[in-house]
Design goal:
This protein is mainly α. It contains eight helices and no strands.
């Protein structure tokens, strides 16, 4: 029974390992197809760590533009400089914590599978996503990020009196398009010269071998356990026969 329990636990562990490896392999195949070049998850993480800080700088520039637009729309020409500076500062404090989240949202949607219904006859260069997909992803990302920015900006009391909820969302979504385009541009242009998106290619191909070896080891162990169980059954039956004769 102990051997049987061990085999069951081992099988569950192997199945979990196989699911994780298969999932990684499928993700890398999907990303490679999307970018039209070999991509590994490790290589992608290296690339994202390289561009993330610059992408966050791009976002901050756009957020400053958003603050200026909201300021111009919510105060009169008679408003004092001190009040304007205070409002700008409050807007920046409200939106600054969103910077990493905004970058992550844009990159996550950029790397999603393209809509299979969309066809595009334009030429796609290596490492680039086709124009029709970019347009759809830009709109999708802008809508999500626009809501995030509008919710943050709404925390400023004077904006609540100057903008309707729909009006604030409209302004934030318009600026979010600039944010998304900036992040997408940063990704696309930097990826052309980044040659480590397929980093650790040997490990990528080795995982299939790892699965095969693990399965072989598991099969050998199961065969030994099965043989051991059969021998145990035979011995038990012999012992029972001997006991019956002695009775």
């Amino acid at each position: 029974m102990v051997e049987l329990a061990w085999s069951s636990a081992m099988r569950l562990g192997v199945d979990q390992l196989e699911r994780e490896i298969r999932e990684e392999i499928n993700k890398e195949k999907r990303l490679s197809a999307l970018l039209k070049r070999k991509v590994t998850l490790e290589g992608l993480q290296m690339f994202l760590s390289v561009i993330r800080s610059k992408a966050e700088q791009d976002v901050r520039v756009c957020l400053l533009q958003l603050s200026n637009q909201l300021l111009l729309s919510s105060v009169s020409s008679d408003t004092g400089t001190r009040f304007k500076l205070a409002l700008i500062t409050k807007l920046q404090r409200a939106t600054e914590p969103l910077v990493p989240q905004v970058v992550q949202t844009a990159l996550s949607l950029l790397l999603k599978d393209p809509d299979p219904r969309v066809e595009d006859s334009t030429t796609q260069n290596q490492g680039e996503i086709r124009d029709s997909d970019l347009r759809l992803k830009t709109e999708a990302s802008s809508a999500v990020i626009g809501r995030q920015l509008a919710d943050a900006a709404a925390s400023c009391f004077c904006l609540k009196t100057s903008f309707s909820k729909a009006g604030l969302l409209r302004v934030c979504t318009a600026v979010s398009r600039d944010i998304v385009r900036a992040v997408f541009k940063r990704f696309t242009e930097r990826s052309r010269s980044f040659h480590l998106l397929d980093f650790d290619q040997s490990f990528f191909t080795a995982r299939e071998s790892v699965l095969a070896i693990v399965h072989d080891m598991m099969d050998d162990r199961l065969q030994r356990d099965a043989l051991s169980w059969e021998m145990h059954q035979v011995c038990t039956q012999k012992e029972l026969k001997v006991k019956k004769k002695n009775l």
